[in-house]
Structures are given as structure tokens and as C-alpha cells.
Amino acid sequence: MEFSKKYKLSSKLGSQRKRKFGEIFKARxxxxxxxxxxxxxxxxTSDPSIANRLRAEASFSFDFEGLPTTIEFEESNSTFFLxxxxxxxxxxxxxxxxxxxxxQLLFLKQFLEKLRPIFDHLKEQGVVHCDIKPSNxxxxxxxxxxxxxxxxxxxxxxxxxxxINQERKLLFPLGYAAPELLMNHLALVDQRTDIFALGVVFWxxxxxxxxxxxxxxxxxxxxxxxxxxxxxxxxxKKMHAVLQKMAAKHTFRVPPNRxxxxxxxxxxxxxxxxxxxxxNEVIDAIAPIKRRFW
Length: 294
Description:
By secondary structure, the protein is α+β, with helices and mostly antiparallel strands. 37% of the residues lie in helices and 17% in strands. It is built from ten helices and ten strands. A five-stranded antiparallel sheet has the order 1-2-3-5-4, covered by helices on one side. A three-stranded antiparallel sheet has the order 6-8-9. The protein has a two-stranded antiparallel ribbon with strand order 7-10. A hairpin with a 4-residue loop joins strand 8 (137-141) and strand 9 (146-150). The termini are far apart.
């Protein structure tokens, strides 16, 4: 795979599983000597949707701390590549693994406070990330604190593009995605969709596993669409109540594909109204929780 001579590759990043979405390299800009991240997709071997995802990601460039900035995006007959600023950090789940249990609640509260301006900015810009998961958060350690970086906007949606969103058909991964994403009711999507996924992320951090999983894809999908987050011995009742509200969903008694689409949309919207409306509401809900009740 050929790249612009402007960049000198230093190492390949990501696991084999993740590289199905293209290849990711740490590189150096030979003109500025700046370290960058270079994502590449070779068109002759890749699913076209992967190139579309990279193109979509390139269109989301921010001048805001904690959000990615696109330095360059280039398309040729054989290759797409996206260059973004490099962030020296570790994925959220890896950072969490270094914490002692007594540190976890404080970290979650600090994490939310640091996430607040990022979510507020995205809301102002009318952007919904749509792929919130531990690997898309990088924790940059500072001398006495940390900074959050939210990555990978390849599945993101601009809420103002209602007609485009209605016509798009995207494949959202099972595990963290809200029902309105899994069923492609993209006209409903707003920040409550990301808050849903954040609730699932917190559940996973606290328990060490994803909720509602199953080896059978059909059963897994049904669990994700209709079942509430289960209780767990690692999660206090107070915290569980918060996570449940973050990830509120409708319990479908009939498979949604057998229902009228308008009725499905109405029920999805109704469930979204049971979630917190903003990251500020989540912060207020978690703030009173004490470690002795943890």
C-alpha cells in the first residue's frame, strides 16, 4: 500500500480484528515533524462500505479539545487515507483495569465531568457519535489528572441532515448501540442515543463484560433490542437505577419486524423520552452516590 511521501510510517496500530476496517499507522509528518495517525483503506481488497466510513469520518473535523482534527484526507484510484492528530493515550477499558475498586466511583464522576464539554459541543454542532464504546475513548494521563479524547466518527450522524439520515442504511455493531440505531430509525437519533451507549459502557466497566450477550446472533439482537440492563452484584442499586435510565429501551412483546414501522418509531421515541436528556442530568444523578453504598 502506497502513501504520500509526506508521511513516514513508524508502526502499525490495532489488532487484526480491528484492521478489517482498514489499517491504522502511527506516522511522522516529514515536513512538520509532527506525530500523526494515518488510517488507510485499499479499495481493491476492502468492502466499499469501509471506504465510505473513512470518508464520513474525515468529514468530522473539530477545533475542540478532546475531539479529532483532520489534517489531510486523500483519495486515489486504489487507496483512501485519512491523517489525524496523534493522541498519546490508552483506551478507556485498559485504563480502567489499572484502577483499584475504591477509585472507580470517583473516576466515573471525573470522567463524566471531563466528558461534559465534549458532549455539550457535539450537541451544539448537531452531531451524534453513534459508536460510543470503550475503545473509542482514549485517556491521556496528565501529571495529576487525565484528559478524555473521543475518537472514530465514521458512523456519526448530523441531526440536521434528516432526509439523508432517513435514506442511510448503516450497520451498527451489537453491544452498545441503542435500538433506534440497530433498527435504522436514524431520524430519531439525538444525544440520548449516545447516552444510552455510555450507560452500557459503564455497565461493562463495572462488571468486566458486556450485558445481554448470546452466541446466537438472532437471540443477541433480540436481547439488545428489548431487554433492560440486568442487575449485577458489582453494581449498587443506586448506580443500577442510573444506568437503567441512561439505557432505557422499549420492551417489544412482538418482534419489531412484524409491526407497522410508524408504531415501532413511536415506541422507540417513547423509550428515548425515558432517558436522561443530557450529560448534565447523568452527572447530577450519579453525584449523590457514595462509595460506602458502592
